[in-house]
TrEMBL record:
Residues 1-34 are annotated as: Disordered. Belongs to the band 7/mec-2 family. HflK subfamily. HflC and HflK may interact to form a multimeric complex. HflC and HflK could encode or regulate a protease. Keywords: Coiled coil, Hydrolase, Membrane, Protease, Transmembrane, Transmembrane helix. It comes from Venatoribacter cucullus. The lineage of its organism: Bacteria, Pseudomonadati, Pseudomonadota, Gammaproteobacteria, Oceanospirillales. One of its GO terms (biological process) is proteolysis. This is Protein HflK.
Amino acid sequence: MAWNEPGGKGNPNDPWGNNNRGGNNNRGNQPPDLDEALKQLMDKLNGLFGGGKRNNNSNGGSTGGSGGFIGILVVVLGIVLVFNSVYTLDEQERGVVMRLGKYQETVNPGLHFKLPLLDQVIAVNTTAVRTLEIRERMLTEDENIVEVELNAQYRVADPVSFALRIEQPERALQVAAQSALRHEVGSAIMDQVLTAGRAELADRIQIRLQDYLGRYQTGMVLTNVNIKDARPPEQVRAAFDDVQVAKLDKERIINEAEAYANAVVPEARGRAQRQLEEARAYKERLIARAEGEAERFNKLYAEYRRAPQVTRERLYIESVSEVYTNASKVLVDVKGGNNMMYLPLDKLMQNMPAAPGSTGLTSADFSRLTDQVLNELRTRQGATQTNTVRREGR
């Protein structure tokens, strides 16, 4: 029969120990007393932790209750200490273990144990890249005021130095960055800070700032330092912009002049070299022609000495042919009659320069020109005959 069935009087399976309760039949079906159950649980805990069994008198009950409370407190405290003695570190962190305030060791990522209440673990992220931004207004070497925005990226290389050597590492980095920035900007002129020298200035700031961090033993390493912006104060921005525009115009004009010089000078040198080559070639051509003429004359003189008459006639014919080749008029010598002039009109028209906008002579123009020439010849021939008759009449 189950322990909780009705009429289970004196049931040995009753966990609440209510075997003797309900001496009357009218109380056998009532639920167990919670106070009685709690007292029994406290008795068992006292037995486990050496508190002794519970007595029926009042003094023994008081002693057993206090001993059970202490036992529960000890169990809870043990559980809390167990949970506090276990900790984990992820892949980006390193743990700096402090035992009683003194550095003990540096642990790697993973599951680790520590002594409760004795050890303290400081987790430091050593892979994340952190950023520092500062803005400062300062004087340059030429006593001009500039506003500079600096961006520095860094990470923790030594977790022990970062956690223990200095109290506020980020604050120390900010102060060191301000000092390095002021030192380098104060050693440069305004044009270098605002224009082309900005990258070189950032490199010098990074070197100086890293030296400061090393001497302070902060455990931080710079990965990049960049000057985001450098500008004059707002009060003189308009004047500064005018100066910059003038400088840009100056640079543009200089570049244009250099480009023009680079285009003209090689061309002039090329023309000069061409003239020199042409003069040299002309000189060599004249010398070669003179030498050839002298050689020809020597050979011709040798032939002339052998046959003077034949050589003279040949020279005469060659000379006349050379002269008539370039002549536009031909005079025909007729034996026993008057000399006649022959005009090669086609050759004459070829040698005449064309008028601007003209399209050339047509056949009608040639016919009209021929008629004019024939009339002119007849007129001259008639005048010649008249003069001859007059001479004969005299």
